[in-house]
Amino acid sequence: MVKRQFPNPKDLLPLMQFKKPELNAKKRRLDSAHTIYDLRAIAQRRTPKAAFDYTEGAAEAEISLARARQAFEDIEFHPGILRDVSAVDTGWDVLGKRVELPFGIAPTGFTRMMQTEGEIAGASAAAAAGIPFALSTMGTSAIEDVAAAGGATGRNWFQLYMWKDRERSMALVDRAAKAGFDTLLVTVDVPVAGARLRDKRNGFSIPPALTLGTVINAIPRPAWWINFLTTEPLAFASLSRWSGTVAELLDTMFDPTVTYEDLAWIKEQWPGKVVVKGVQTLDDAKRLADLGVDGITLSNHGGRQLDRAPIPFHLLPEVHREVGRDLEVHLDTGIMSGSDIVASVALGARFTMIGRAYLYGLMAGGREGVDKTISILGEQIARTMRLLGVSTLEELNPGHVTQLQRLAPRALPAGAAEAVAAAHKPRPASRQRKTAARPTTKPSAGATTPEARVEADAAGVPHVE
Ligand SMILES: Cc1cc2nc3c(=O)[nH]c(=O)nc-3n(C[C@H](O)[C@H](O)[C@H](O)COP(=O)(O)O)c2cc1C
């Protein structure tokens, strides 16, 4: 039988901890976010559908992005116990200079359309946190303004898309060098634009067109529109005006003839570090190591280019093993938490970059929203390190992480790659029947590459388990 008594007001008093109401709406909003997904939900409420979808979306069926995020969710961590982790250091050197956290802000185009503070918010928040900010060729703030936003402590990288008009792209690179940008990120996964179907369906254009649909969509999102219409019109880092879809713009600007020779040429023009972004096979990683670049970014552009591309996080251990002594291996695509970053470092990444995680913060609250993204990820990194029993990034190693893999590749039969290559080779018409391809019996290293598997799939070559 429970014995009851009258509550004594004196005992209740310490339990009543009513907080002073927060009058600043933005602070209230950002304080309620504890994860990047929370920031995403706020961003979605505040941003017109077309601009939000442009950020959130990926190419075709958006499988690349979903798989990349799934791969991070499928991490199993192996913590060490009874270590002194009272102090943790989340920083180290990246490309010769210290970063306070092992991630930076990835280059994104049209950023001021997501939220009017755009790149200036990103560059100033990054500088305050001691991490690099990358400005896109398709950025919506001038190179010099981004340099100024970072102030004396800011570290900026310039992302280059090689244009059909090379003189113009090199003029941009010169401006970036003069403005003190220390690294050139050459993005190589955009010979043509990926199929961003959300943008097509939304009729997304630059600048946004005021159709009946956009006006109706604007009604519950007045802050975005007030900001957009009452601040400086969008000025691009590199072009003055455009009316058409984003994909049409990309197709007009990008040069599908760019090769390794052009990259070597670019490297000679640039006085600082060169990192190649968009590397997706071990073969290309090795070629770039031979070329002498300072770093590579394993990335499938956040799933916005080739759908069903390799998962960068899965490529990481092998690529790091093969070229990690020659250059720095960086990684992006799918990062939504600090523990994704810790796992990447454990498997060999020197550095990681965040695209959407930054943009969700920006859309949720401008500069303060980007600060919030960085602080959420920074706290998650420090906490995960402590829980793993490490106090420095150097102590992280592959023993801390298992990649649980849902989609295991199927092996090809021996000789399949040679057989397909032989069958695809043009031959004189008279010999075609006699030289029908036959698989050789010797196993071939080439047959296990993803390219060989794709070729074999296309030719209907059967797989063995
Ligand atoms: C809205 C948006 C615009 C982007 N624009 C560019 C760009 O102009 N240049 C570039 O190299 N990458 C661009 N990216 C790719 C990012 O740099 C980065 O590779 C990608 O966002 C990483 O994936 P995550 O968004 O899952 O973090 C863009 C990504 C997004 C989401």
How would you summarize the topology of this molecule?
Blueprint: H1 9-12, H2 25-31, H3 36-46, H4 49-56, H5 63-73, E1 75-77, E2 92-94, E3 97-99, E4 103-105, H6 111-114, H7 118-129, E5 133-135, H8 143-150, E6 156-160, H9 166-178, E7 183-187, H10 197-202, H11 212-218, H12 222-230, H13 246-253, H14 260-269, E8 273-279, H15 282-291, E9 295-298, H16 312-323, E10 328-332, H17 338-346, E11 351-354, H18 356-388, E12 401-403, H19 416-424, H20 450-458
Parallel strand pairs: 4-11, 5-6, 6-7, 7-8, 8-9, 9-10, 10-11
Antiparallel strand pairs: 1-12, 2-3
The structure holds flavin mononucleotide.
Flavin mononucleotide (FMN) is lined by residues 54-55, 106-109, 136, 138, 159, 187, 277, 299, 301-302, 304, 332-335, 354-357, 359.
Description:
- The chain is α/β, with parallel strands linked by helices and 465 residues long.
- The chain has two domains: 29-402, Aldolase class I (TIM Barrel, Alpha-Beta Barrel); 416-458, no CATH class.
- It is built from 20 helices and twelve strands.
- It has helices at 9-12, 25-31, 36-46, 49-56, 63-73, 111-114, 118-129, 143-150, 166-178, 197-202, 212-218, 222-230, 246-253, 260-269, 282-291, 312-323, 338-346, 356-388, 416-424, 450-458, and strands spanning 75-77, 92-94, 97-99, 103-105, 133-135, 156-160, 183-187, 273-279, 295-298, 328-332, 351-354, 401-403.
- The strands form three sheets. Strands 4-11-10-9-8-7-6-5 form an eight-stranded parallel beta sheet. The chain has a two-stranded antiparallel ribbon with strand order 1-12. A two-stranded antiparallel sheet has the order 2-3.
- Helix 16 links the parallel strand 9 and strand 10.
- The chain is globular and about 105 Å long.
- The model is unreliable at 435-465 (pLDDT under 50).
- The site of flavin mononucleotide has 24 residues, from helix 4 and helix 18.
